[in-house]
């Protein structure tokens, strides 16, 4: 607790360490204070055991006592933390693991201590050796990293009520489905939050087509009594009594696949017809945007990219003329391909490199050569 109090204590900013005020743009005396807005389910406290200075480094071997149970973080929270997160009620923690370091800065060995949540006993993990240790042994180690987990008697009672209701229910009563992801949080976290069946349900209240193949892997059937108990305690939802695929999402998904196929096939055809010579204009496109489009049409991204954005490959000169940046990552498209993509996505700006134009003499020579070939 002393370490936490020191970390969260007010720090005066004065002298060479004055505060630069963003309003008056001047250096002012001030006070820097850290407060926690939301507590995590697992609290990791990393103690500074290594001191690094300009010419050498050293290890800090001071013993620091730490509680095995009942670490209360409420004094270090902002005053209105309940308003910021009404679901945040638990502020106490119990130690579940610790890491120690033996040796010095240049060389050493790490040993881990972890509590078995089934039998409540502590174990030491030293490479391939695992041995049971006492609570007092853990409390006396030179801790380097401490892992605390939220503790709540109310959460333990809620889980026990859940298992009792589940045990008393009949198999025929299992008519409601709940997200396995949320149920895992309920079984392992002190504050799981509202039920999130949106993990597998779409906005229409049915099952998204992409979730159908694994629907029984991401849901858990529950009896009505258990479902009502969980909703009354945690809220959330929506309720799911059937696992039917959503027709609306299926239609939208099919349309999206047809769009992907159309864009990809049209691009391939236009790109195949693109003449490989220097006499045509080359339209430049940012490879950053193009790669996003490519990931979309290949099904690696769900959403299409935004408008074409060539701003990262171009800059504006003083005369408002667009100039291609040197060493910029861009691709070259024909007018037809550029027009195809631009008609769909809009954006820009448009920039092309003019092709080399043939002189009249070169054209005449080319025509004469073609006539000679035909005569032969």
From TrEMBL:
What does the record list as coiled-coil region(s)?
A: 246-273
Entry-linked Pfam families: DUSP, UCH
Q: Where is the composition biased (Acidic residues)?
A: 357-376
Q: Show the Gene3D superfamilies listed in the entry.
A: Cysteine proteinases, DUSP-like
PROSITE patterns reported for this sequence: DUSP (PS51283), USP_3 (PS50235)
For this UniProt record, give its keywords in alphabetical order, as a comma-separated list: Coiled coil, Hydrolase
Q: Does the keyword Membrane apply?
A: no
Top-tier EC class: hydrolase
User: Looking at the keywords, is Transcription regulation present?
Assistant: no
Looking at the record, which segments are called Disordered?
354-376
Q: Which reaction does this chain catalyze?
A: Thiol-dependent hydrolysis of ester, thioester, amide, peptide and isopeptide bonds formed by the C-terminal Gly of ubiquitin (a 76-residue protein attached to proteins as an intracellular targeting signal)
Q: Which residues belong to any copy of the DUSP domain?
A: 153-246, 254-357
Question: Which parts of the sequence belong to the USP domain?
Answer: 1-151
Q: What is its EC number?
A: 3.4.19.12
Task: Please give the biological process terms from Gene Ontology that the record holds.
Answer: protein deubiquitination
Q: Which GO terms describe its molecular function?
A: cysteine-type deubiquitinase activity
For this entry, the protein name equals ubiquitinyl hydrolase 1
* Source species of the chain: Desmophyllum pertusum
Taxonomic lineage of the native organism: Eukaryota, Metazoa, Cnidaria, Anthozoa, Hexacorallia
* Name of the gene encoding the protein in the UniProt record: USP20
């Amino acid at each position: 607790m002393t370490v936490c109090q020191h970390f969260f204590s007010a720090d005066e900013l004065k002298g060479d360490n004055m505060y630069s005020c963003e309003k008056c743009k001047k250096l002012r005396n001030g006070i820097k204070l850290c407060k926690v807005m939301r507590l995590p389910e697992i609290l990791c406290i990393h103690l500074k055991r290594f001191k690094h200075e300009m010419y050498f480094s050293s290890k800090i071997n001071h013993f620091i006592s730490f509680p095995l149970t009942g670490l209360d973080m409420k004094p270090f929270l902002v005053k209105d933390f309940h308003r910021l997160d009404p679901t945040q009620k638990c502020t106490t923690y119990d130690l579940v693991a610790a890491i120690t370091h033996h040796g010095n800065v240049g060389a050493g060995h790490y040993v881990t201590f972890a509590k078995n949540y089934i039998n409540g006993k502590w174990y030491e993990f030293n490479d391939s050796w695992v041995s049971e240790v006492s609570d007092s042994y853990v409390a006396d180690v030179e801790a380097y990293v401490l892992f605390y987990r939220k503790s709540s008697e109310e959460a333990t009672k809620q889980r026990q009520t859940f298992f009792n209701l589940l045990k008393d229910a009949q198999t025929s009563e299992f008519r409601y489905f709940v997200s396995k992801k949320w149920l895992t949080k309920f079984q392992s976290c002190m504050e799981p939050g509202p039920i999130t069946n949106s993990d597998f349900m779409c906005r229409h209240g049915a099952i998204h087509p992409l979730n159908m193949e694994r629907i029984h892997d991401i849901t858990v059937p529950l009896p009505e009594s258990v479902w009502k108990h969980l909703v009354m305690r945690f809220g959330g939802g929506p309720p799911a009594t059937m696992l039917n695929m959503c027709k609306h999402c299926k239609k939208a998904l099919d349309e999206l696949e047809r769009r992907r196929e159309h864009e990809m096939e049209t691009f391939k055809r236009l790109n195949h017809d693109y003449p490989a010579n220097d006499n045509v204009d080359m339209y430049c496109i940012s490879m950053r945007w193009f790669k996003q489009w490519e990931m979309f049409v290949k099904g690696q991204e769900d959403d299409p990219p935004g408008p074409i954005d060539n701003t990262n490959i171009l800059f504006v000169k003083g005369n408002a003329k667009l100039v291609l940046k040197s060493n910029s990552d861009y691709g070259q498209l024909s007018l037809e391909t550029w027009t195809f993509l631009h008609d769909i996505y809009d954006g820009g700006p448009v920039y092309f490199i003019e092709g080399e134009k043939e002189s009249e003499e070169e054209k005449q020579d080319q025509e004469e050569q073609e006539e000679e070939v035909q005569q032969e």
